[in-house]
Amino acid sequence: MKNVVVTMLMLIVCLPLSQVLVADTWMGAKKVVSVQLVQTGGMIIYFDSEVSPTCTTAGTSSLYIYPDQVGVTTDGAKAFLSASLTALSTGMSVDVMYDDSATHCWGKYLVIKK
């Protein structure tokens, strides 16, 4: 009986934690096809292929970048804009870490690649 109780407690604690840990995901290198600016200082970046079936708010091949979401600051959002436009104009790829715990899929880190 003690083993059953311990197992149940472990499941109750570990399952929610596992969902938190898998929320941050790297999308893999993709080409930027457009950048939509939003009046609040944020943007939506659209890619040439699907990011995740979870990201449904603006379509499965997009990510949201907004100040005050997942630790992105106003300056961080400006840096995302700069890197995204550089990738769009040069044809380089980007890899973005995003939080897929909601349908908006908020971006938090960006790497630009050849």
The total number of structural domains is 1
Q: Enumerate the spans where pLDDT stays under 50 for 5 or more consecutive residues.
A: 4-9, 17-21
Second-tier CATH architecture: Beta Barrel
Question: What integer value in Å does the Rg equal?
Answer: 17 Å
Helical element count? 2
The whole-number mean of residue pLDDT values reads: 87
SS elements, strand count: 6
At the fold tier of CATH, the topology name is: OB fold (Dihydrolipoamide Acetyltransferase, E2P)
Helix content: 25-40%
Query: What summary fits the major beta sheet?
Result: 6 strands, antiparallel
Beta-strand level of the residues, as a percent range? Answer: 25-35%
CATH class, anyone?
Mainly Beta
- Regarding quaternary structure, how should these chains be classified? single chain
Q: What order do the helices and strands follow?
A: HEEEEHEE
> Span from first to last CA?
58 Å
| Overall spatial form | globular
Secondary structure class reads alpha+beta
